[in-house]
Amino acid sequence: MTKSITIIYAYRNRDVARVKATLVSLQMQTQQNFHVVFVDYGSEGSYAQKVQKVVSGFVFATYYYVAHTGLLWNKSKALNYGIHKTTTPYVFLADVDVVFHPSLTAVMQQLITPMGFYLFTIAYLPKEINTKEAEQFPIENCKPTHIGNTFGIGLFPLEALQKVEGLDTFFHFYGSEDADLNARLQEAGYFLKYHKPLLIQHLWHPRYPFKKDSQIMVQPRLTNVQRINQRHYLRNREKGIIKPSRRDRMGNVISKEESDFLQKPTKIIKIYNILSHVEHFLGEELPSYTGEIIKVEFLEDPYFQTLKYKLKKLLGKQTQLYCSIKEVNDMVLKEIVFNYRDANYSFEISENLKSIIFCVRMN
């Protein structure tokens, strides 16, 4: 059968059992009119090996590994890479947390149109339903916690996605990239319709803990990123933007060979958490290193934790202004999001949360 639909997954460091469950539900489809493009965007090696083995066990699926673990999570870049690899006229953007009714792809075959795109109704399963049980659709005697519409799981013409140049890669971590894509497609003249019959079930997982964005953790988090993403989405809507601005070629990712360059820095710098030093380096010094591969370690000044410093600060005596490692984290992450998101970079927080290593190849 000619494949008319490519189903794209974006993945990173997730439970492999979920991947198996969603692919098993595709294996059970009554119409095998699809191909799966599975994009692993920067998983750690232990996850990558396991998920590649699972994906490779399904004849309809192809696994792609973006082998650069130091990149920030960017769902838009992962999906755009999948779109770039697509050769079918239609695309279904999926999620590793969902399982499908056996008739999904047959229904999609009836819905496809070059004039618009479809989002779907989705049922959210309770916590006690495990991945094995979720492979059976519908699950007997199981009441969903709630039912709603999807924002990012949908059926799109490939030509439409190419016309708007895919998802906007400004969006990092989580939030607004799906709504932004839908709005730009409509701005470009494509209609949006909702398919109401229930064909998708969502496995339970903890909600993204936005409240932890204000804490320093080994996993990178940026304070207020949800609002920053929301502001970008609203700006795009206000200006009627169709194609994202300020970004690299759609579908471009950093290769393993390119990422290996970061292991051979041409300049190594250490900067203590003195506010003026951090601000000056990021705003003035770093942009001047044209053509260099920079490795900078931000770390706590030993003086920062001394009784002498704390007493001087308490007494209001003049001293250098310091910033916490979390504040350094946020300053560096904002630089990546706003200025270096398309560069070859890596970002790593130490296990003891006392230092940050940022590497970047400057153009």
Automatic annotation (TrEMBL):
Signal peptide span: none
Transferase keyword on record: yes
GO MF term list: transferase activity
Record's protein name: Glycosyltransferase
Keyword NADP in annotation: no
InterPro entries: Galactosyl_T_C, Glyco_trans_2-like, Nucleotide-diphossugar_trans
Keyword annotations of the record: Transferase
Limits of the Galactosyltransferase C-terminal domain: 148-193
Domain Glycosyltransferase 2-like: 7-113
